[in-house]
Write a structure and sequence with these properties.
CATH topology: M1 Pyruvate Kinase, Domain 3
Number of helices: 3
Shape: globular
Structural class: mainly beta
Largest sheet: 8 strands, mixed, barrel
Number of strands: 9
Number of domains: 1
Length: 119
């Protein structure tokens, strides 16, 4: 398998878990505007090695999820801002800045949790 993206969680906004209850979470690099950080999973590294595509595999720690849809600006937003939304809804149709994944429960996200995408 080939590594496409890797980052490490360094912070969890106080309202980020509200999104997880809705089947999604938002990541933003640590230089995010302060008013957005409270809603996001914050990460420091932003290693996008290749564009993310459908059928790639998201890993959150040891948990794996198949990517079924990639929004039109996901790769650009990830490169520039380290900012995208992961939606665990099983829907192929995506919003511009979202990655849609198979419908599964989201694992517990903690500080130092590794998030990767593999092909």
């Amino acid at each position: 398998m080939e590594l496409i993206y890797r980052t490490v969680v360094i912070g969890i906004g106080k309202r980020a878990m509200e999104f997880i209850d809705e089947g999604m979470f938002v990541i933003f690099k640590d230089d995010a505007p302060e008013e957005l950080k409270e809603f996001c999973i914050i990460h420091k590294e932003n290693n996008l090695l290749k564009d993310i595509k459908e059928n790639d595999l998201l890993k959150i720690g040891e948990d794996k999820f198949r990517i079924i849809g990639v929004g039109s600006v996901v790769n650009e937003n990830l490169k520039r801002l380290g900012h995208i939304t992961f939606r665990f809804d099983g829907e192929k149709e995506t919003l511009g800045g979202s990655i849609n994944l198979e419908k599964k429960d989201i694992p517990k996200i903690t500080i130092n949790k590794i998030i990767e995408i593999w092909r």
